[in-house]
Amino acid sequence: MIDVLVIGGGNAALCAALMAREAGASVLVLEAAPKEWRGGNSQHTRNLRCMHDAPQDVLVDAYPEEEYWQDLLKVTGGLTDEKLARIAIKASSNCRDWMRGHGVRFQPPLSGALHVARTNAFFMGGGKALVNAYYRSAEALGVQIRYNAPVDSIELDGERFVAARIGSERIEARTCVLAAGGFESNREWLRDAWGQVNGQWIADNFLIRGTRFNMGTLLKFMIDAGADTIGDPSQSHCVAIDARAPLYDGGICTRVDCVSLGVVLNRDGDRFYDEGEDFWPKRYAIWGRLVAQQPGQIAYSVIDSKAVGRFMPPVFPGTRAHALPELARAMKIDEARFMNTIESYNAACRVGTFNHAVLDDCHTENLTPPKTHWAQPLDKPPYYAYALRPGITFTYLGLKTDPRAAVYFDGTPSENLFVAGEMMAGNVLGKGYTAGVGMAIGTAFGRIAGTQAALAARNVKGKHDHAIA
């Protein structure tokens, strides 16, 4: 019998599998996707948000625990479990050497418009390279891996794990780690979570920025089986992405990063939120939800030529025009309404010393909503517009857990069933997001879950051997 069964194939699952194997357990990983699509949403990631008290290898300056915590507190609006959040934060300070030991490489620190040279360590080759490195290491260590293996149910004895099922196939193990992701690919579940407006399902206009394989099958099974849950099903890592992005797996390249450098209008030609509220890596993930709340779930990021070169260029070119009325017509927004919004914004701009690398003093006055930083008139042609749709990366509804990563049933922790990654991220992320924190949560709790599962498997073996004796 296998000691540790890991259900899932992304970062958290692989961290769990590697830690369990290092602890001496036999490990089987069940990945729902075929080999070429393995890795879940982790294949689309780029970086890990890391706490550090002084400069460290690829990280400049310092990013202490308390600042990290305050950043998380701000984006979640307090909807976070501080104890679990601080576990992830502290773990992010010392996991990179372990990651390197399994083949992960980091690139030199970035500088410029992303503002993340201090806070985030970037993977050389991105998330796909990280996932491939972990799989190579797991295979070398003797971890068994099965692809095209979507678990649809598990067998429980009270709160104890007994076996997993793939259709009629039954797979027993002494312990189990659930790391099979959220339900972002399940359109019906998204519809239920978001509801309708004027007879139309809001979620029908969503694009799935992440993997197509996260249907939430195992999550729903666990909820129906009585596992304790946490989180709002409508909350997610939801980014405003290019409206022309593919339905699934668009990943990082579909993001549009010029929001803070211009204005964002809905289809009625109105602004609806402060584009300069905070640095983009701390705020980019609120814009998907904001766009989802607009008519038709669409918006338009509008910039002028002053912004070109100040942000990561999108994969798709924007709509270009030499005059603002021409741009309005190209986007099919009422020209008079569009021009009134832009002219009101331009008149309200109080330009000080523009600096996109700091929270500068360029702001608007007597304008609702305001633009707090980086406010400059849109007055230098040509002008550009990018149509935006909500892009769901991963959902936050998950299983309640504790510092041991145990699954709970009616307040009682399971002795041999653990959870990591997106299936428990809602404990830390009640809402909002800040760049790289998902990988920090998945890495921390994946490693904890793997360690605890290996320990629990030894205990089960010990009891069995004692009973035989």
TrEMBL record:
Q: Which molecular function term from Gene Ontology is one that the record holds?
A: oxidoreductase activity
Which species is this UniProt entry from? Answer: Caballeronia novacaledonica
* Residues in coiled coil: none
Q: Which domain of life is it from?
A: Bacteria
Q: Which UniProt keywords apply?
A: FAD, Flavoprotein, Oxidoreductase
What InterPro entries would the database entry show? CobZ (IPR012831), FAD-dep_OxRdtase_2_FAD-bd (IPR003953), FAD-oxidoreductase_2 (IPR050315), FAD/NAD-bd_sf (IPR036188), Succ_DH/fumarate_Rdtase_cat_sf (IPR027477)
Record-given protein name: Tricarballylate dehydrogenase
> Has UniProt tagged this entry with the keyword Oxidoreductase?
yes
Q: Which NCBIfam families match?
A: CobZ_N-term, PRK08274.1
Q: Taxonomic lineage per UniProt? A: Bacteria, Pseudomonadati, Pseudomonadota, Betaproteobacteria, Burkholderiales
Q: Which cofactor does it need?
A: FAD
What region holds the FAD-dependent oxidoreductase 2 FAD-binding domain? 3-428
